[in-house]
Amino acid sequence: MKVRLAVDLIACDGRGLCAELLPELITLDDWGYPMLARREVPAALRGEAETAVQLCPKLALRLEARPPGSTMPGSTTPGSTTCGSTTCGSTTCGSRRGEPGFMMLSPSPRMLDT
């Protein structure tokens, strides 16, 4: 079963513990809020991901399971050049199929300047 990390940004207060525990899948934005890798959690990192979820001081991090054959939110479809997000719709974010990318889960400075 596919498993991905998800974060509740309302509950999160940007302490950054998750990124310290799981730097392979979580980076922090300029304000200390997590940006999650746009892929499923590899089996080799499943234990570390579960630990990060359990140790989140605000219980904002969680693992979401998907049944086999389902696509993960934000994943691209074959031939797609954009992230495929139904909420974003951006064609300029650079999240192209095959490129490493991170899901932006908090406002970027660019978003705040508009």
Task: Describe what you observe in this structure.
- With about 110 residues, the chain is an alpha+beta fold.
- It has one domain: Alpha-Beta Plaits (2-Layer Sandwich).
- It is built from three helices and five strands.
- The strands form two sheets. Strands 2-3-5 form a three-stranded antiparallel β-sheet. Strands 1-4 form a two-stranded antiparallel ribbon.
- The relative contact order is 0.24.
Core attributes:
114 residues, alpha+beta, Alpha-Beta Plaits, three-stranded antiparallel β-sheet, two-stranded antiparallel ribbon, 5 strands, 18% strand, globular
CATH architecture: 2-Layer Sandwich
Number of domains: 1
Annotation, overall tally of beta strands: 5
> How big a fraction of the residues is strand?
15-25%
Task: Specify Rg, calculated over alpha carbons.
Answer: 14 Å
Shape: globular
Instruction: Report the mean per-residue pLDDT as an integer.
Output: 74
CATH C-level category? Alpha Beta
Offer a quick outline of the entry.
The protein is of the alpha+beta class. It has helices at residues 17-21, 46-55, 109-112; strands at 2-7, 26-28, 34-37, 61-66, 102-103. The chain has a single domain (2-112), classed as Alpha-Beta Plaits (2-Layer Sandwich).
Topology diagram in text:
Layout (H helix, E strand, L loop, with lengths): L1 E6 L9 H5 L4 E3 L5 E4 L8 H10 L5 E6 L35 E2 L5 H4 L2
Antiparallel strand pairs: 1-4, 2-3, 3-5
